[in-house]
Amino acid sequence: MPFVNIKKHYIAFGMLLFVLLFLFNSKPAFQCQFSQEPPAYLPTIYGITPTYSRLAQKADLTRLSQTLMLVKNFHWIIIEDSETKTKLVENLLKESGLKYTHLNVKTHKAKHSTASGVEQRNAALDWLKGHLNQIEDKKGVVYFMDDDNTYSLKVFDEMRKIKRVGVWPVGIVGGMRVEMPLVTDGKISGFNAVWKPFRPFPIDMAGFAINSTLFLDYPEAKFSRKVQSGFQESEILKYFTTKEAMEPLAEFCTKVYVWHTRTQHPSILNVKKLKHPPVPDDHIEV
Ligand SMILES: *[C@@H]1O[C@H](CO)[C@@H](O)[C@H](O)[C@H]1NC(C)=O
């Protein structure tokens, strides 16, 4: 009998050891599910997007918002050109789950001015300055985004490297396959633009981003309705940088990570003129 007891003890001890070894070995894998590595610090990207009502608006905003859902630490400032905020944009933003600020300001266009988005982007900058003054971590990047452009996720990775102002190529813009800064020995030496190449900064709005703290350092920096078309980019950039001081990103401006795509104006039949008018669809949001 004592022999059997001893054997039982050995078996019990062996099993305990086995269970302990199992727990110990599987601990890191077990832990992984609950506590992840602390994520690397990512400065916030403030995307500023003016928008206006039109038939393709929801399609364009759906495409853009679903890109933005994949961007970490992103804050979308969307400004409607309207007297009041629309339900369409409000619902789209709510349903997106994105961090956003929804603003509106109606453009009262001067007769000769064709500039679009001036009042809307300035309203966003005013909001941003107030916001940054209230929060602890002011680090971030400001990017002016059209609602119908096409953005690779890579462009957001690039702009988080910015110290002051970063630049990169833009595809399909200004009558060219690609508009880009020219880089010599790691510095911007010129631009390849053919449309108004005499502009101080002949680049598209999608081709640069600005350190957000600079807007606190230069609170007077804003867009202007007084400048001729194509000069809005130069108008804002002149406050912060020079050609030589810009930081060439996207592998020294050799990669295209953003495209100035334009959504075609849809042509819809005038149903009143049809002999057999279709079923009414006014109650459907498109
Ligand atoms: C922006 O500038 C501030 C102040 O110089 C700096 O601390 C920060 O690292 C810069 N970059 C970003 C992305 O905020």
Automatic annotation (TrEMBL):
GO terms for biological process: carbohydrate metabolic process; chondroitin sulfate proteoglycan biosynthetic process. Pfam families: Glyco_transf_43. Pathway: Protein modification; protein glycosylation. Its EC number is 2.4.1.135. Gene3D superfamilies: Spore Coat Polysaccharide Biosynthesis Protein SpsA, Chain A. The gene is LOC114240951. The keyword Protein biosynthesis does not apply. It comes from Bombyx mandarina (Wild silk moth). The record marks 179, 270 as: Interaction with galactose moiety of substrate glycoprotein. CDD domains: GlcAT-I. The keyword Transmembrane helix applies. Belongs to the glycosyltransferase 43 family. This is Galactosylgalactosylxylosylprotein 3-beta-glucuronosyltransferase. Keywords: Glycoprotein, Golgi apparatus, Manganese, Membrane, Metal-binding, Signal, Signal-anchor, Transferase, Transmembrane, Transmembrane helix.
